[in-house]
## 1
Amino acid sequence: MTKSELIEIIAARQTQLSVKDVELAVKTLIEQMSETLASGERIEIRGFGSFSLHYRAPRIGRNPKTGESVGLAGKYVPHFKPGKELRDRVNKGLERDSLQTDADGSPDSSGSDSAAGVVKSAAEADGTGQPSQTNLFE
Amino acid sequence: MGALTKAQMADRLFDELGLNKREAKEIVELFFDEVRGSLENNEQVKLSGFGNFDLREKGERPGRNPKTGEEIPITARRVVTFRPGQKLKARVEAYAGPESE
């Protein structure tokens, strides 16, 4: 799905605004998200995920043509961490797809499935929950 | 200086574009709902100027319960990855980091 397809779909799902208005709104939202990250702030969308910056330490790079070493300064890169709801729903999509291809109907393995789910949720905190500044200002 | 949330995004649509509060809130909800729906249906989302949300499938791999140390396989799963676009990367790279005191 592209931005223009997203705009069309949103416009079709509501009744008050024209496609032009929705287009402007979507562009404004994306611009605001970019500005936020460009100013070093996080974005936290419950049920979707969080965006933050990750620091990349300075390093010595090499010009691939000449082989010459160049010092590269440290920099920040955008990072997205999907929230629990998005992770679960995307993963359900995989289960759905594999059920469709699994015409033989292999025995249900939901037992081991839920055990792994416990491991995963214990290992990873949900990015959309409590704001954690670990990535940014430390 | 808190993180950007849906409420602030709706406020901006109200302040800048003059949508009413209810419309603004609805557009923000629909925006994330549609992106999520597309990803849920295994369809990549490309927002030019911002970045792409891609899907990757990971095979089963050995894992461990961090509390008990018990070995349990991590099942095959589909995950979302975000690849920032050139424009966003360039804007973020220009960020100098937290002001030093």
Note: Chain A is about 45% helix and 20% strand.
## 2
Amino acid sequence: MFGSLLGSFDTSLFDEFRRLESEMDQLFGRGSLPAGIRAMRRGTFPPINVGATPERVDVYLFAAGLDPKSLDISIQQNLLAVSGERKVPVDEAADYYRQERFDGEFRRVVTLPEDVDPDRVDAKYRDGVLQITVQRREAARPRQISVN
Amino acid sequence: MTARQEVAKREPTEVQAKAREQELVLAPAVDVFENSHGITVQAEMPGVSKDRLNVQADRNSLLIEGDVVIDLPAGIEALYADVQATKYRRSFVLSGELETDQIEANLKDGVLTVRIPKRAEFRPRKVEVRTA
């Protein structure tokens, strides 16, 4: 079961990431073009992946240790905004050697394809990944046309 | 084709495969802190479930690793990706005063907490000052 999921990630999705990345490198890698208006610096919390099928768009936020109640998810047309707060409890009596984990408020805005339907959005939180699924409008899907 | 040509042809792909394998692994962000009882490591591993997690310790080292499994619909294509790996791995060198056979690990919502207690004789003792 996991094998097939992981398999699809390893092959299709991962190769796709790789291809996108190398295309992005070619396009944006030399600093000749300005970054997207909503792009944030690398390492911004939480990291986001966005994937699409003809039926839906899935947004994955890799945000471990969140209280789902602290999340505020809103969508306006094709702009998805997620904000929230992650608190990392601090042990006052301890000496810290490393503090790499993000602590505090965050907000990320993602531009989705224009044909998403803002009325059909679903969100779930599992194993520290927030997955937001937005359905796409029927009209935008590829349609098979038969020849009579 | 001569053998030499074949070797020359194969080499770059092997090197690429190795580089790709290294890129596929993410180092999880961690907090490491110490109090009088021991050392605690907290690692961010979103997308890892308990059955995909591996925590190993021996006298000298602690290894944490896990596989990312997320719910992907069939035929998905990436539009954007900050996370481009499917595996987390990070290791630490331990020191002798730690009780490595008493390690406790707990995974909740993608946050792994590993507690490594100190041997009793290394816990700081409070020295009472008696007044005469």
Note: Strands of chain B lie at 25-26, 30-34, 38-44, 53-57, 61-67, 77-81, 87-93, 104-108, 111-117.
